[in-house]
Amino acid sequence: MAPNDSAQITGENDETGDLPAGRRRAARYVVPVAVAGVAAATIGLVPALAASGDPDLPKITAAQLIEKMAASDTERLSGTVKITTDLGIPSLGGLGGSAAGALAPKGGADSGGKDGGSAAEPTGKLMELASGEHTLRVATDGPDKQRLSILDSAAEYSLIHNAGEVWAYDSSSNQAYHAKAPAGADSGKSGKPGKSGKSGKDQAVPKELPATPQDFTREALKAADDTTSVTVDGTARIAGRDAYQLVIKPKQAGSTVGSVKVAVDSKTGTPLKFTLLPSSGGKAVIDVGFTKVDFSRPAASTFTFTPPKGAKVTEADESKAAGKDQAHKAPKDAKELGSEPNVIGEGWTSVVQLDTGAKAPTAAASKDMPAEARQFMDALGDKVKGKFGSGTVYKTRLVNALMTDDGKVFVGAVTKDALVKAANEAK
Question: β-strand 312-315 against 175-180: which pairing, if any?
């Protein structure tokens, strides 16, 4: 078993500060959970991935394991992923299959294919992964071919990207959604920046929510600094593969993140399992990993799709014209948010401040919201007061957000007290 090796991530530490360029790039993988998007940080997976024994592997340091992850060039694999989320919020499944749809005003287009939308449209469908337990089949063959299927007891939803074409199909409604991948989506290698600075995979397939351990590792771990400690904590057997256990912990008080554990394949450097434990204790908020994995090239037929006979096909332009994206638009009186929100603090306790310019919804305005959505929002909110005035903290076990009555928003993977403190100190 690999020994417990700790690396304190600081700019002056010999483990990272004096590393060559390859290791400095690797260090980007070790940081706090990003708070840019609540959805991206809130998918999780069941601890249904039992490890079978601790393999005896050669000794490796934390810095070496991080470098191995960063240098991994795995572009071809297929397998089964188990995923469950425990954010401590009502199930999004009770909101009609799409969080966006349920939170939209009554009569909106985001209603499971009614009013002109498509039940197969990816944004709403992938939001279902933000709660409950799910089994996925995934496959990738380089930057221009990916497939993700969400398996249900009696239905299947598939999202396929193949050389510039994106198809989504919902078997329960027999509806399909078709779109052209963004220009340049196939440039660059999977998981590595292309000319645009984003990976081909990330541009080609909607990435509102991560779905594999690789996704979580890339999205949740960005850079290393002196707010983080890293440890190699033994080994594990995941999906029939020998793996090292990398444990990442914040050194700051006030974060909702207790620790992050990544099981890294000992041969390929590919993350096989990702587990996030909250600082509040209890079971994992996020625990996602492979139960089966194959690093050989998937069959070409995996990435081909033809709509079944009788299926309703909606083109992306038609869905947009039907008002599918209305629920995501800012309020009419909202200010321009700009591309550079104010960031308060650093590391794991960073808080992002936005000024929407829109006052908090009144009781009268909330009447236009579906009953399920009102219940959902009420279950999340706590009224708070401070030097900043008054507002409501919408809480989960991971990402929390404070919306002040005058339209300011503070969001981060931090506690309620940390949000109130940030609001009090904001200029």
Answer: parallel
Q: Name the strands in the sheet holding 381-386, side by side, starting at the edge strand that comes first in the sequence.
A: 342-344, 351-355, 408-412, 400-404, 389-394, 381-386
H-helix or E-strand spanning residue 217: helix 213-220
Going residue by residue through the chain (427 aa), what tens digit of pLDDT does each one get? 444 444 444 333 333 334 444 443 333 333 333 322 333 333 322 232 334 468 999 999 998 998 899 888 899 999 999 998 888 876 555 444 433 343 333 333 344 444 456 888 888 788 888 888 999 999 999 989 999 999 988 899 999 999 889 999 999 999 999 998 765 554 444 444 333 334 433 333 444 457 778 777 766 566 456 888 889 999 999 999 999 999 999 988 999 999 999 999 999 999 999 999 999 999 999 999 999 999 999 999 999 999 999 999 999 876 555 554 444 444 444 455 444 678 998 888 999 998 876 666 554 455 566 666 666 666 668 889 999 999 999 888 999 999 998 889 999 999 999 999 999 998 6
Element (H, E) at 40: helix 38-41
Phi/psi for 133 (5° steps) reads: -110, 140
- Give the separation between CA 93 and CA 103, rounded to whole angstroms: 13
**To the nearest 10°, the Cα dihedral for 409, 412, 416, 422?**
-60
How many C-beta atoms surround the C-beta of residue 16 within 10 A? 24
**Contact present, 236 and 39 (Cβ < 8 Å):** no
Those residues with Cβ within 8 angstroms of residue 197's Cβ, 6 or more apart along the chain or in another chain: none
Number of other CB atoms surrounding residue 373 within 10 Å: 20
- Residue 238 has which token pair? 């995941």
Task: Sketch out the chain's domains with CATH numbers.
Answer: 5-318 (2.50.20.10), 330-425 (3.30.310)
Separation between Cα atoms, residue 228 and residue 10, nearest integer Å: 8
The model's pTM: 0.72
Pairing relation of β-strands 312-315 and 286-294? unpaired
Closest alpha carbon to 392 in 356, 99, 400, 38: 400
The DSSP result for 55-117, as a single string, is: -------HHHHHHHHHH----EEEEEEEEEE--SS--GGGGTT-HHHHHSPTT-S-BTTBTT-
3-state secondary structure of 151: strand
CB 352 within 8 A of CB 413: no
